[in-house]
From TrEMBL, chains A, B:
Pfam families: Beta-prop_ATRN-LZTR1 (PF24981), Kelch_1 (PF01344), Muskelin_N (PF06588). Residues 7-201 form the Muskelin N-terminal domain. The keyword Repeat applies. Keywords: Kelch repeat, Repeat. This is Muskelin. It comes from Pagothenia borchgrevinki (Bald rockcod). Residues 361-570 form the Attractin/MKLN-like beta-propeller domain.
Length: 740, 740
């Protein structure tokens, strides 16, 4: 395995600049004098475009860039900038998009310097300031260092690869263009001379069968085999998830008949849990059982304990009143976690109204339930006395089955209502990060609540999300609030290394790109797919509730460190009101529960508070499952067949309309899902092709090409999209590179 | 001639948007409700990128865009934006870069919709806000209308042209690439099939002779003929002017010997005018005679009158004291203009020290000098009494020979020093725009000094530039100051139509792109080339003088309405200190005179105040000519021969070094200007080619091509640059379109 050379300081000069003001020359970035306020480049204004172009002494792999700063914060520091690089000024790629903290510390950023695993060289680096910390101030850069590899033994092969890559891609675009336009001789000469492949041989074969031969049966066979060989898997993995909510109507205990939905009373009958918010659910993935305990029904705390079997589609009431069975008293805003391995459930914390808070009741009791033995054990009368957390609510708790540990973080500490003079307790206190060693039954305080900004400090909070990743053994914490302040930081805690890692400090305004804070978030984790799922609902804060807020569902890709939105219903409603209603989903709410079965990839949601100002005591008792769906292989195969046959039909329609009609009604109809309204509607419009003239649609730019050839080429281009990029012709088109 | 169809309102929808905030939806731009503050699109922030993409109902020629506004000014209005358009989202061209006024009036802008004279179609229009009036506010757009042509009879041919154009340019890039890489078969197949020409046949012939045949003599002949046929003229016209200052050492009156520069005394001898500032010069282009009158020598006003003959290189003193010859008394800061047709010179205005100002002396006398008769005539004792301007200084005056009119504008009105209680006169007054009808000897007041912002209002000032364009018959006025305020507006006045046109109101900060205000500007006009030339020197204001200010020279292209900088010496000094010293130029100064011979394209400069704080009375008496030079045809021909022979030498050096050396010393040496240090130095380095290996430099991306072929191709590409774009292969390269 080749030794990767060290990154060294690269030599460069300032090549071009957009402007500069006064004596703040571009060249000043070459010296690092943090105490000299004039030792910087300053643009003449902040009107775009502003930039500096640096020229490296020799081509190099540019791996990182370091920005020096002034000794104090400065309004001209770059809050947002981009860095580009390339072998020529005109042809540069974006290497970095980021921003500096407004402080006095140097900051180093990795620059993109590879395509897949291939390093590419740069001769020019362009820094483009976009935003300064002081909104109307000029942009300043104090000092720049570039690091990378200059060693010709490393760089020359990269330069060679770069030339070869560009030549290859240019020729492939030519080949694609020539073939589309049927410049056969030119195509063959070029291919023979350069020996560059336009695409995988399988696709050349597809092109031959489809476009040149019109052998549609052979096409279908080829697609069939491709799907079977898993070639469409990359395409599937790139598709967006579609959420499918399904309301669960469980069987009643009495017999196997399903309950009529109209029969469901709001009293919470024997068959299933009644309406509530602030309850807790956990799921035992091994047995597909959802456990639900406690909550608040609008009037009082609850102490009933239920189990739902997914297989049986049935709730069973384990206990009407756990207190009577040596278990916890009625409570809400507690937290539960499950040890599936040992088949035990833990519960900690609860909310107490100020009227009932007295020093006696402020004990943080801690219970464990053994599923198989059906018994409760009081692990501690007061965890605080045991070195653990005080009585808290709206905290988070996670189970680490492997090491038999429990982690709890945050929550608001409940305090006694002392006398009026006791003002010390008016400031809310938040609980830190604790670990419970199940075997030893002891607590450790891992992190106190801290508002310091040190690298290992954590700020406690309520209403946040905390998840344990069983494979990388990290806790993931994000969101929540402290009093009126909504937090949107995101950090992980390595439980074995006792180390905090900031994923996002929440200062960068990524609006629209991450789930919005301030809306109740319920999160779950899939350690196998390495994803965190977040369902955002209704804000608890009455002032923040908008009439038409709807749920939004986000997925955080842990490996790629990026959020994507599965759906964001406020926009869907605005775009297409009917679309939102087509698919049922639970109404937005807070104080509900969401659990995830990572084995079967299903979420379950129960109850909560719908926040109806006219009915403040109303709680929900609905029960839903959520599946995130992508197109299946079978669906794609059917879809491709449909496309091929639809085109075949359209070709037939030109020359033999009667046969075309028969073909439509038989072969083509077979590929349509007649239960799907969208597909059915499209199918019903197809016969109009029988009445169209043959030249109704010639794609722009193809007027010189035989129409059948052009249309078969279009079908080919469509089918090709399902194949992995490594197999297909380039996606771009030669003519699209021509700008006016 | 085809009738150009009317521009109509185009139908479009909002297709995509970067973001929006609250209820300020993108669709709101479709309705015009200026009194509804919520009827607008507002971005979610002003972080780039922000945009709206509009999709037209059908492809159209988009000729203009109209922005509606709110009924009041608004911080979210767009101070700066760009508009792009194209047939697809990915492939758009910039159509407009501008900004809105922050008011409540609709504004309409023409959009680029033609390439040369060919209209091109758009389907998508993208609006990109760059800057709002309130620096940290979101961007808002209230209402958008697009106007253009939708009629398919007009649009379809444009679409066809567009497809064809893109296809053609794409194929030309392929042909260029294939030829460079010697993919001969592919090149020929493609050319035969598409019948698209890579270049003008002359250049194909040049390529054949040079690259394929290595027939360098034939190349030189071809270039020779091309230059002779004027084919390099377009290239020449695109070159920047290089300024060539030359100090004029006139002959003395006594005999034909040139004066030794060291002999020149500072007393102002009989031979030439003495040192002065605030004098006046005019030039009689017909006879190439420069006339100089009056000024201030540091101690007193002057009344001597001189004529310089360019042909004779000699000054003649017409009069030692014009007052003695019925002409004007000694004066400075007067203004003169010449009627070359009638051979008469006029002078108006002067500066009077406050100590000598009394009501008697505040008469504005007006004199005319007849060149052939050598006589002065007092036209008026006091122009103010005749309905003309009061006594002014630092005004401007222009001659309109054709209509026999004189125009004078601005200047500060000299007032009596009244008693201390007379505070009315403390506010400086500036003189308006007057016309003098020479035949009738009457004055008209065209525009009073006005600080209103109406379309026909003009603000008077001092130290400004005013020029008369004899062909379009407009006065051009710019710059100047009122008290402490420097003005940088620029307007024209149509003398026949009595109409003011604002060219630039000076509010847009085009820093660096126009001559800076506050520095003494001397301007001249070339009606044939349609250019205004501005020489900026030293500021009169001591506080503004920088140690190392140097002259800068700008050209304003009247037709294209744009300024270009010929040189800006502060930057040249910073970049290359030795460069500035290589070429002599007059030291920066103020109160000097600059005149222009538009027939021979020469400027003349005399004297002025160098602003030496240690010698405040020092004035200059140096005399310079300035020519703005572009490469000549002869120079380019020699240069091309040099390039061809240099390459030929390098080719020979590989195989027959002795012959190569002989060739260098003879044929190649012939093409070098051995008096030019730069050319000589390069020539002296050439022999090193005799010692280089053959593969010392292979251009990136051409490692697969025979080296001789590649290097001859490079020479071909270099020579091709001198030909007009309409004849050459495309400038771009296929591989440069590939981005990583």
């Amino acid at each position: 395995m080749a030794v990767v050379p060290e990154s060294r300081v690269l030599t460069f000069g300032v090549f071009k600049w957009s402007s500069y003001s006064s004596t703040y020359l571009p060249e000043n970035i070459l010296v690092d004098k943090p105490n000299d306020q004039s030792s910087r480049w300053s643009s003449e204004s902040n009107y775009p475009p502003q930039f500096l172009i640096l020229k490296l002494e020799r081509p190099a792999i540019v791996q990182s860039i370091t920005f020096g700063k002034y000794e104090k914060t400065h309004v001209c520091n770059l809050k947002k900038f981009k860095v580009f690089g390339g072998m020529s000024e005109e042809n540069m790629t974006e290497l970095l998009s980021s921003g500096l903290k407004n402080d006095y510390n140097k900051e180093t950023f990795t620059l993109k310097h590879k395509i897949d695993e291939q390093m590419f060289p740069c001769r020019f680096v362009k820094i483009v300031p976009l935003m300064s910390w002081g909104p109307s101030f000029n942009f300043s850069i104090w000092y720049i260092e570039l690091h990378g590899i200059e060693d010709p033994d490393v760089v020359q092969p990269c330069l060679n690869w770069y030339s070869k890559y560009r030549e290859q891609e240019a020729i492939r675009l030519c080949l694609k263009h020539f073939r589309q336009h049927n410049y056969t001789e030119a195509f063959e000469s070029l291919q023979k001379k350069t020996r560059i492949a336009l695409e995988h041989p399988m696709l050349t074969h597809l092109h031959d069968r489809l476009v040149l031969q019109g052998d549609f049966d052979a096409c279908e066979e080829l697609i069939d085999k491709a799907v079977g060989d898993g070639l469409f898997n990359q395409y599937i993995s790139q598709q967006e998830y579609k959420p499918r909510w399904s309301q669960i109507i469980p069987k009643c205990n009495k017999g196997t008949q399903e309950i009529n939905r109209d029969d469901m009373t709001s009293d919470g009958d024997d068959n299933r849990p009644g309406m509530r918010g602030g309850h807790q659910m956990v799921i035992d993935v091994q047995t597909e059982t959802v456990y639900l305990f406690g909550g608040w029904d609008g009037t009082q705390d609850l102490a009933d304990f239920w189990a739902y079997s997914v297989q049986e589609n049935q709730w069973v009431c384990i206990s009407r009143d756990t207190e009577k069975e040596s278990g916890p008293s009625a409570r809400s805003c507690h937290k539960m976690c499950i040890d599936s391995q040992r088949r035990q459930i833990y519960t900690l914390g609860r909310y107490l109204d100020s009227s009932v808070r007295n020093s006696k009741s402020l004990k943080s009791d801690f219970y464990r339930y053994d599923i198989d033995a059906n018994t409760w054990t009081l692990l501690s009368e007061d965890t605080s006395a045991d070195g653990g957390p005080k009585l808290v609510f709206d905290h988070q708790m996670c189970m680490d089955s492997e090491k038999h540990m429990i982690y709890t973080f945050g929550g608001r500490i409940l305090t006694c209502n002392g006398s009026v003079e006791d003002s010390r307790t008016s400031e809310p206190q938040f609980s830190g990060l604790y670990a419970y060693h199940c075997q030893a039954a002891t607590w450790s305080l891992l992190r106190e609540d801290s508002c310091n900004a040190g690298p290992e400090d954590v700020q406690s909070r309520i209403g946040h999300c905390m998840l344990f990743h069983t494979r990388n053994r990290c806790l993931y914490v994000f969101g929540g609030q402290r009093s009126k302040t909504y937090l949107n930081d995101f950090f992980s805690y390595d439980v074995d290394g006792d180390h905090v890692e900031i994923i996002s400090d929440g200062t960068k305004k990524d609006s629209g790109m991450v789930p919005m804070t301030g809306f109740t978030q319920r999160a779950t984790i899939d350690p196998e797919l390495n994803e965190i799922h977040v369902l955002s609902g209704l804000s608890k804060d009455k002032d923040k509730r908008e009439e038409n807020v709807r749920n939004s569902f986000w997925i955080y890709d842990i490996a790629r460190n990026n959020w994507s939105c599965v759906y964001k219903n406020d926009q869907a409603v605005k775009e297409n009101p009917s679309k939102a209603l087509q698919e049922e989903e639970p109404c937005p709410r807070f104080a509900h529960q969401l659990v995830y079965d990572e084995m079967h990839k299903v979420h379950y949601l129960f109850g909560g508070n719908p926040g109806k100002s006219c009915s403040p005591k109303m709680r929900l008792d609905d029960f839903w499952s959520l599946k995130l769906c992508r197109p299946s292989k079978e669906y794609l195969l059917r879809h491709c067949r449909y496309l091929i046959r639809k085109y075949r039909f359209e070709e037939k329609a030109q020359s033999e309309p009667l046969n075309a009609l028969k073909y439509l009604q038989n072969d083509l109809s077979l590929t349509v899902d007649h239960t799907d309204p969208v597909e059915t509607k499209e199918f019903q419009l197809l016969p109009s092709a029988l009445f169209k003239s043959s030249s109704d649609f010639i794609p722009l730019g193809f007027s010189d090409v035989d129409q059948t050839y052009a249309q078969r080429t279009q079908l080919f281009d469509t089918l090709v999209n399902f194949f992995p990029d490594s197999m297909t012709p380039p996606k771009g088109n030669l003519v699209d590179l021509i700008t006016l």
